[in-house]
Amino acid sequence: MLSVAEASERILAEVKALPPETLPLRQALGRVLAEDVTATVTMPPWSNSSMDGYAVRSADITPVMSGEPVKLRVIATIAAGEFAPRALKRGEAMRIMTGAPIPGGADSVIRKEDTDGGSEKVEIREARDVWKNIRGAGEDYQSGDLLAKRGAPVKPALLGVLASSGIATVQVFGRPRVAIISSGNELVDIDDFDEVIAARRIVSTNSYTLEALTRVSGGIPEDLGIASDTRASLKKKLESAAGYDLILTSAGVSVGDLDHTRDVFARLGGKQKFWKVKMRPGAPLAFGLLNGVPWLGLSGNPVSAMVSFELFVRPALRKMQGHTNLFHRALTVTVEEEIKIAAKLTHFLRAFVTRREDGTLTARLTGHQSSGALTSMVKANALLIVPGTHQKVAKGGQLHALMLDHSLEETSAFSL
Question: Which residues of the chain, if any, have pLDDT below 50?
Fold first, then answer.
């Protein structure tokens, strides 16, 4: 039986980034660059004003530094997108708008509120902006500069930078197509909910949670439906997964009389790399390759499937997409209650992490830790990691928590 770290390492060793594809820039948000991108121009192409005001020569406003106002002749107005008719001469100023090119000879932009706002002549009353409010040519980047490296996620700011350099298309790593198969005679889709009402069946929640987790991880999920607990049904489903980048099954990988998934996988030529991990929930995890395509067989228990996804499937999907940061962030937290585990396995307990006013993080369990209690997963923003060597952790003790979302970074009010 492998440790969690060993299992993760073996899975990722078999997973490769998908071939790149070329996309229009607007469609590349959230993808990962498959190439270095360099600037085609210098930006900004000319020095420009960062303020509405007056472009002046510092030599003309020296008296203002001693408290004596100076009047200058206004010879032009420069709006953004326009250029000055000529360079400034002694005793002259030009009205200028934010983003407009700086006229030759000017080395300062005095903001409008430090003047009388004159249109033919302007009185400069304050010199706090001498040699200021000018953004130099090439301040952002120079032609030929590296704008982004291969492996960089395409975020909104990067989209803007690439657009500013006229880069209309980019090469990005592909998105993995994921075949999702649930199995179990007791399962139905939500369309057959009458069976649930009659207490004969239960909804295949894994079909929904695994599809959603795949989607938020950047993959393209396709639910291939529910297989019954027969070798023939499982064989048909696995054969229909040909051509996908990852095969994800839930249930059927343990040692029960009807757990046929691993056997059918092997009969189809699949090469199982390992089975079972020293963890709870989710110990009966299987991994292998079917015709070169990675396969992950998760437990059928709803929480087990979700926990295994976060630990093993999500990192694999991120690697396929070219990401280098593959794992959720782990933070040190103080537990608000005594924690006990029965088995000497690494436990991943559903928890809610809160930040106190002093900045410390605390964690409390979200309820029943049964692998079938999906509601406790709804309330969790983290998985509390309890090593098998720590079968009892006292209240106030410290553990690591694997953060599942960004709730700690969000607030209902804005403050600085």
Answer: none
pLDDT tens track for 338-381: 999 989 999 999 999 999 999 999 999 998 899 888 999 999 99
Phi and psi at 85, nearest 5°, equal: -70, -25
pLDDT in tens, 238-272: 999 999 999 999 998 877 777 789 999 999 999 99
Q: Which CATH architecture fits 4-16+175-320? A: 3-Layer(aba) Sandwich (3.40)
The letter for the amino acid at 219 is G
Of the candidates 76, 118, 120, the residue with the CA atom closest to the CA atom of residue 100: 76
The fold of 48-135 is Molybdopterin biosynthesis moeA protein; domain 3 (2.170.190)
CA geometry: angle 323, 328, 330, nearest 5 deg: 135
Strands 398-403 and 382-386 come out as antiparallel
Is domain 330-409 annotated with CATH 2.40.340.10?
yes
What ranges do the domains of the chain cover? 4-16+175-320, 20-43+140-173, 48-135, 330-409
